[in-house]
Specification:
The structure is a single chain. The protein is an alpha/beta fold. Helices cover 28% and strands 14% of the residues. Strands 4-3-5-7-6 form a five-stranded mixed beta sheet. Strands 1-2 form a two-stranded antiparallel sheet. Strands 8-9 form a two-stranded antiparallel sheet.
């Protein structure tokens, strides 16, 4: 009898999870993660005590951090436990409905299927962790900062599986693909088409690429007309300008590989 109850509960939870994901994908109108982020974040107005957003969805506390890679300057990897797992505490605020929490939880739990990262519900004695809130837009700080750090997944446009994975990768220490140190070998940036004042979003960072190739299919790669002022491309792949990119619906093999390399999974 207890086995039956457990099986029925597991089936119910699985159905709820899949239903939530199906509904989310339907509502995304087939947009890639970068298109979702641009739609959600483009017209955000910074609150008095809110973070500055750079590269559309990376939170920083002051302008001095804009061009730096916080992980290389202060060692922002989350700590590995003696069992070889990396446990990252999280708390999902009560702003979200049960269906919305299911979408977020699915994104959190997906990491355990391909890495040593284990997002776990926070305990009262945790001194650091992610607080997942519905603030304005979708954004995260890069890497572990100590104490409570917010990951914003606004209810009105950010609750999709790929968006959750994208922001969690930021929290784990990763930047956007188009800011990679070797970007210029793979992407030509057309600053003449970029909205005035948004050029900094294409600044390169001295990233540690974990021995992985540039990945047009990365969930961290923005789409062809990101930050465009005229509908024309702001990025063109080289040497083949026709290569499709910025369309990821979930983490790619390279995303997973570099995550596992960084955390020595």
């Amino acid at each position: 009898m207890s086995v039956f109850r457990f099986s029925a509960l597991a089936l119910l939870l699985l159905s709820a999870c899949c239903w939530a994901d199906t509904e989310a994908e339907k509502e995304s109108d087939g947009l890639s993660v970068s298109e979702i982020l641009e739609r959600a974040n483009t017209n955000l107005v910074r609150s008095d005590n809110g973070p500055i957003l750079t590269e559309l969805d990376i939170a920083i506390d002051n302008e001095a951090e804009r061009n730096a890679d916080p992980c290389t300057s202060r060692g922002c990897k989350w700590l590995k436990n003696s069992d070889g797992k990396v446990y990252v505490p999280y708390y999902i605020t009560n702003q979200f409905s049960s269906r919305e929490k299911a979408i977020i939880t699915r994104g959190l739990e997906s990491f355990s299927s391909f890495s040593c990262i284990r997002f776990r519900p926070s305990h009262s004695n945790d001194h650091e962790g992610l607080q997942i809130e519905s603030q304005n837009g979708c954004w995260s700080y890069v890497g572990r900062r100590g104490g409570k750090q917010v990951v914003s997944l606004a209810r009105s446009g950010c609750l999709y599986h790929n968006t959750v994975q994208h922001e969690l990768l930021h929290a784990l220490g990763f930047n956007h693909e188009q800011t990679r140190s070797d970007r210029d070998k793979h992407i030509r940036v057309l600053l003449q088409n970029v909205v005035s004042g948004m050029e900094h979003n294409f600044n390169k960072i001295a990233t540690l690429n974990q021995g992985t190739p540039y990945d047009y299919n990365s969930v961290m790669q923005y789409f062809r007309t990101a930050f465009s002022k005229n509908g024309q491309p702001t990025m063109i792949p080289i040497p083949d300008a026709n290569v499709s990119f910025g369309n990821a619906r979930e983490m790619s093999r390279n995303d997973i590989s570099r995550l596992n390399t960084l955390y020595q999974c």
